[in-house]
Design goal:
Elements: E1 21-23, E2 35-39, E3 45-49, H1 54-63, E4 70-74, H2 80-91, E5 95-100, E6 105-110, E7 118-119, H3 121-124, H4 134-141, E8 143-147, H5 160-168, E9 172-176, E10 179-183, E11 191-193, H6 199-210, E12 215-219, H7 225-236, E13 240-242, E14 249-252, E15 260-263, H8 268-281, E16 284-288, H9 296-304, E17 309-312, E18 315-319, E19 324-325, E20 329-330, H10 342-350, E21 352-359, H11 368-375, E22 379-383, E23 386-391, E24 399-401, H12 405-417, E25 421-425, H13 428-431, H14 437-443, E26 447-451
Parallel strand pairs: 1-5, 3-16, 4-15, 7-8, 11-12, 19-21, 20-21, 24-25
Antiparallel strand pairs: 2-25, 2-26, 4-6, 5-6, 8-10, 9-10, 12-14, 13-14, 16-18, 17-18, 21-23, 22-23
Helix pairs in contact: 1-2, 1-7, 4-6, 5-6, 6-7, 8-12, 10-12, 11-12
The structure holds uridine-diphosphate-2(N-acetylglucosaminyl) butyric acid.
């Protein structure tokens, strides 16, 4: 589908003061009524470019709250969650320019005048990562009011570790009417040991600690590349952070942060999804603009399955027409096998010879895609946190329902190898984290199209926020 003409496509990013300037923020796609129609059986051939990482861009945008100067972020993915974060920051009084051009996707955020340090339920319920504003707001403004996120499609996802950590830094936290309220004159450095490894918890505390008085030591931190990317941005803003990417991060608090320009890392989960798409369809696909060093556990596992891959600086080439072999995975924190690739791997396992055991260690309810895959012909048995997938089974096209972001990706993958036509409903889930998925897949030979009604954007919001 041709993208609407816009000044954004010229690469120009005009500035507005006192308002949110939105340049082609989210094109027509993405109505809650949209469906993807996919006809399977075509090998993917050619080259596809990976977008910036949603899960790195979201904390980076929240980090702009820590300074009154402009923060310029490049390689921002054109996905719905970024649009939600834009709304979140704008509702607080931030000026957010968001532009998607042919050359680059960029946002400039100015938080010089923050009127209302609040994240409302309306936004938090659609995107749990909204809670990332808690730390920066209390650190800079001395006050934050953030809605509790509520239920989630992939299991209980409390934010108790964010709260305990901020209390350690001296914030007074109360909870009322579904909101967390945090107050502190100035946060004070402390030692925080996370009881459990948490990605956004580490990021929230990292941001808060940058403006705390004295030294903060964060232990048992998440080591995900998105945490390291955030630390790199914060250091460019004048923070003094050491050890990001390890379990122990030291932050020497400063009194003020300044503006910076930063390029967001590539999306390793989008890259991994394309790698599996190529492996499944027996294609020859170059996945460019990615960082293979972030994909180690996945690449190793796929090689065990018999997939032929070649990495080269910023790309991965998948040349795969050999039969796939079963393999077991257990999801773990980085550098282990990512939970965000578990659903996609399950689809691959349906096409591998033998039994694959998939153990989900991070979230308690992240097998919702299994039942939809079974409807397409897969043989999957779930027992608590373990799924046993017996392959190879022929998949046949069916009408299926996407239940969350990565579950929808697994259904797209299944549809690419299924016999006949698959219609995937609730495509808004995939639009949260995959940029123009149908255009990218069509560009490498997939038979995929989006159908939907041109409904007003104010569509019912899914209860399951990821
Ligand atoms: N946890 C707690 N208490 C907390 C925080 C987390 O018990 O205060 C638990 C969670 O319930 C879960 C585990 O710790 O069992 C790990 O959760 P984590 O906090 O690491 O998840 P997250 O930060 O909410 C991020 C990604 C997710 C990704 C997970 C795990 C972002 C915006 N989200 O979530 O991405 O699955 O880390 O890697 O970075 C996705 O992109 O599809 C997605 C869900």
């Amino acid at each position: 589908m041709p993208r609407p003409a816009s000044s954004a496509s010229t690469g120009a990013f005009p500035r507005t003061i006192g308002a949110t300037r939105l340049l082609q923020a989210f094109p027509r796609s993405g109505s809650s009524m949209d469906k993807l129609v996919i006809r399977g059986g075509t090998p993917l051939l050619g080259s596809v470019r990976v977008s910036g990482a949603k899960n790195a861009a979201l904390p980076a945008m929240a980090a702009a709250l820590l300074t009154e100067e402009d923060v310029i972020l490049e390689n921002i993915p054109q996905v719905r969650d970024i649009e939600t974060e834009r709304k979140l920051l704008a509702a607080m009084g931030a000026e957010v320019e968001l532009g998607y051009g042919r050359a680059q996707h960029r946002t400039t955020i100015s938080c010089s005048h923050l009127a209302k340090p609040e994240a409302s339920y309306d936004l938090v319920k659609t995107m749990r990562a909204s809670t990332l504003v808690l730390g920066p707001l209390v650190a800079r403004m001395g006050h934050a009011r953030v809605s509790l996120p509520g239920g989630c499609a992939i299991g209980a996802r409390p934010i108790d570790l964010h709260i305990k950590g901020l209390e350690k830094l001296g914030a007074k936290i109360t909870q009322e009417h579904g909101y967390i309220e945090a107050r502190a004159d100035r946060l004070k450095g402390a030692r925080v040991v996370f009881e459990k490894i948490t990605v956004t918890g580490t990021e929230d505390l990292l941001m808060a600690a940058t403006l705390a008085e004295g030294e903060t030591v964060l232990e048992n931190c998440a080591r995900e590349p998105e945490v390291s990317d955030l630390a790199a941005l914060l250091n460019k803003m004048g923070a003094r952070i050491e050890g990001a990417g390890t379990h122990t991060i030291r932050v020497h608090g400063v009194t003020k942060l300044h503006g910076a320009r930063h390029r967001i890392i590539p999306d390793r989960i989008e890259a991994g999804t394309f790698i599996i798409a190529a492996a499944l369809t027996g294609g020859d696909l170059m996945i460019s603009g990615c960082d293979p060093s972030h994909l180690g556990a996945l690449i190793e596992k796929l090689q065990e399955c018999g997939v032929s891959l070649r990495t080269n600086g910023e790309s991965v080439r998948v040349m795969s027409d050999a039969p796939l072999k079963a393999a077991d995975i257990t999801t773990e924190e980085f550098p282990g096998f990512p939970t965000d690739m578990q659903a996609q791997f399950m689809t691959l396992a349906t096409q591998a010879e033998g039994a694959s055991i998939i153990t989900e260690n991070i979230f308690e309810n992240r097998f919702m895609h299994a039942q939809e895959l079974v409807r397409m012909g897969a043989n999957i048995k779930i027992d608590g946190r373990r799924a046993v997938v017996r392959g190879k089974t022929a998949l046949s096209g069916a009408a299926v329902l996407a239940s969350d972001l990565r579950a929808s990706a697994s259904l797209v993958l299944a549809a690419l190898v299924a016999d006949g036509e698959t219609i995937i409903d609730r495509v808004y889930h995939i639009d949260r984290g995959y940029e123009r998925i149908e255009e990218k897949l069509k560009g490498v030979g997939a038979q995929i199209r989006r159908i939907g009604e041109l409904l007003p954007r104010r569509s019912p919001v899914p209860v399951s926020a990821i």
